[in-house]
Specification:
The complex is a heterodimer of chains A (159) and B (354).
Chain A lengths: L3 E9 L6 H9 L8 H17 L9 E6 L4 H13 L4 H6 L3 H10 L6 E5 L3 H11 L5 E8 L3 E9 L2
Parallel strand pairs in A: 2-3, 2-4
Antiparallel strand pairs in A: 1-5, 4-5
Helix pairs in contact in A: 1-2, 2-5
Chain B lengths: L4 E9 L5 H9 L6 E4 L5 E5 L8 H15 L11 E4 L5 H6 L10 H9 L5 E4 L5 H14 L5 E8 L3 H9 L20 E2 L1 E8 L5 E10 L9 H15 L8 E3 L6 H14 L5 E2 L3 H4 L6 H15 L27 E8 L3 E9 L3
Parallel strand pairs in B: 3-7, 4-5, 4-6, 10-11, 10-12
Antiparallel strand pairs in B: 1-8, 1-9, 2-3, 6-8, 9-13, 12-13
The chains are: A alpha/beta (159), B alpha/beta (354).
Chain lengths: 159, 354
């Protein structure tokens, strides 16, 4: 089993009122077409990479994100839209957790192995990420709860 | 590293409640999709599981229990990890009761409870690639000796959010599923519950390797360079060269642009292309369950030599014809799924009976 070194760790809870403005300023643009949950993931991931001194996610790094609830606001919106007619395309896409992976790939200028899981236990999710990451030895791991918390770890395997 | 095998499998789909009935139905030419109607009178072709139980949760429970039992996983210790792969989880159940606060966070644990499963539970949610990603995570745990068995349960069952969502994006065909077909005009969705019982104990099918590549350049479609990277990484992970692959089951969802991008990328990696097979005209695109469902169906087809009929004109411009019959021998097989969110995932199987 790999021993992991924590290069950076950020946990943000409660969220500052201006977190979306801070993210837009850091990216140089407001993220388009993604919902608040995916935006919060991007906010935390960006903070963590900045803390690690990494402008982009290094090639070969594996990305693992987990959550207990995933994008709740979009899920509520899409269910209501589907009850009365055809859902709106952007709302439907925002209800899909995988859109968060696409947003991270875009904004972190990275193509690679990314996975999202719903899980009740952050410790179990972190363990699974580390076991998935044993081949590359480089991980960015996040736990994101909408409107509440974003926590990220930048991990590399010890030589 | 421990080798990882497919010890057992189960599948409920439009073809039937189990794999034996699916092989019979497929041998007789397959089944036609029904219709799924959503609000506003919109309706599309849809491959439903034949089960009239009106209560979504009761129906899901019964099907999941039957499919997991078919895989043989319930005869063992049930202490390894359970990976649920789904795009919509319990959305159909929430719609039954008009509860729209999002999925019940305890739904994956409820499924585990139905199966008497005592190991840790993860719900992999990477849209269409969920099933294959679940297989890759389960393989990782078994390879490293953290467990000697795991169950991947793909679960995608009727709900209007999914059908309406894809319909609203104008991604659905109004007629039928035509993977790599000249007249292809979009996806036809379907229901499936599939179980893959993975184990370190030797059996006929070895999970030789795989790869998962996310590229967000096109959040709703596939990216050529990512398809190429997926294939090359899966081959490298399996210790194989392109010419070692005797059969590919591509995504081949029947979308105009997606099929073209995929065929072109496959031709870039594999020259010449090995035999190709698509299962989506048989069971529809089963989204989060597709990876598990199509692996279960594919291995059953190869064992029984029952093959999905290609009864439509294929698109000659793709230069990627689907095989009309099972290859005589296929030791190494690649199965891939491409999906929403820029996901591109492949698994390579080795048939030890060849």
């Amino acid at each position: 089993m790999s021993q992991w070194h924590t290069v950076a760790h950020v946990a943000v809870e409660p969220l500052p009122e201006d977190w979306r403005a801070s993210l837009a300023e850091r990216l140089g643009q407001r993220p388009r077409r993604i919902g608040p949950w995916a935006e919060l993931a991007l906010y935390g991931a960006r903070l963590c990479l900045d803390a690690a001194g990494e402008p982009t996610l290094p090639a070969g790094t594996q990305l693992r994100i987990a959550s207990r609830l995933a994008p709740m606001a979009a899920a509520r919106a899409i269910a209501e839209q589907a009850r009365v007619g055809l859902p709106m395309p952007f709302a439907f896409m925002q209800s899909q957790p995988s859109q968060m992976l696409a947003a991270l790939s875009q904004h972190l200028a990275w193509q690679g192995d990314a996975r999202f899981s719903l899980c009740r236990d952050p410790h179990a999710a972190l363990q699974l990420a580390q076991q998935d990451g044993h081949m590359t030895g480089s991980l960015l791991v996040g736990w994101v709860e909408e409107d509440r918390r974003t926590e990220w770890w930048r991990l590399v395997a010890q030589a | 590293m421990n080798p990882v095998y497919l010890a057992g499998r189960g599948l409920a789909s439009a073809l039937g409640p189990d794999l034996a009935s699916a092989m019979v139905a497929l041998g007789q030419g397959g089944v036609q999709p029904g219709r799924f109607e959503v609000a506003g009178g919109w309706a599309w072709p849809y491959y439903a599981i034949a089960d009239d139980e009106p209560d979504w949760m009761a129906r899901t429970r019964r099907i999941a229990q039957r499919v997991a039992a078919e895989s043989g996983a319930l005869a063992g210790p049930r202490t390894g990890p359970l990976f649920l792969s789904s795009s919509s989880l319990d959305m159909g159940g929430l719609e039954d009761h008009s509860i729209f606060d999002g999925s019940d966070p305890n739904f994956p644990e409820a499924v585990a409870g139905w199966l008497g499963w005592r190991g840790p539970v993860f719900a992999i949610s990477t849209a269409c690639t969920s099933g294959l990603n679940a297989v890759l995570s389960a393989r990782s745990l078994i390879r490293q000796g953290h467990t000697d068995h795991a169950l991947v349960l793909g679960l995608e069952l009727r709900n209007r959010v999914t059908v309406g969502g894809f319909g609203g994006m104008q991604l659905l065909s109004a007629t039928r599923s035509l993977p790599f077909g000249q007249a292809r005009a979009g996806l036809v969705l379907g229901e499936a519950v599939a179980a893959l019982h993975l184990s370190s104990q030797p059996s006929r099918w070895r999970i030789a390797g795989g790869a998962n590549v996310v590229d967000g350049q096109d959040p709703a479609g596939s990216v050529p360079s990512a398809v190429v990277a997926m294939c090359r990484q899966a081959l490298a992970d399996s210790g194989l060269a392109p010419q070692d692959i005797a059969l590919i089951k591509p995504q081949a969802a029947g979308s105009l642009n997606g099929d073209a991008v995929e065929a072109q990328a496959l031709r870039e990696v594999f020259a010449p292309l090995p035999a190709l097979v698509s299962l989506k005209a048989a069971i529809g695109h089963t989204l989060g369950a597709a990876g598990a469902a199509e692996l279960a169906l594919l291995t059953a087809c190869l064992e029984s030599k029952v093959w999905p009929r290609v009864d439509y004109v294929q698109d000659a411009a793709l230069h990627a014809p689907l095989a009309e019959q099972a290859p005589r021998q296929a030791r190494h097989v690649m199965a891939s799924i491409l999906g929403f969110g820029g996901g591109h995932t492949a698994v390579v199987l080795e048939d030890l009976a060849v």
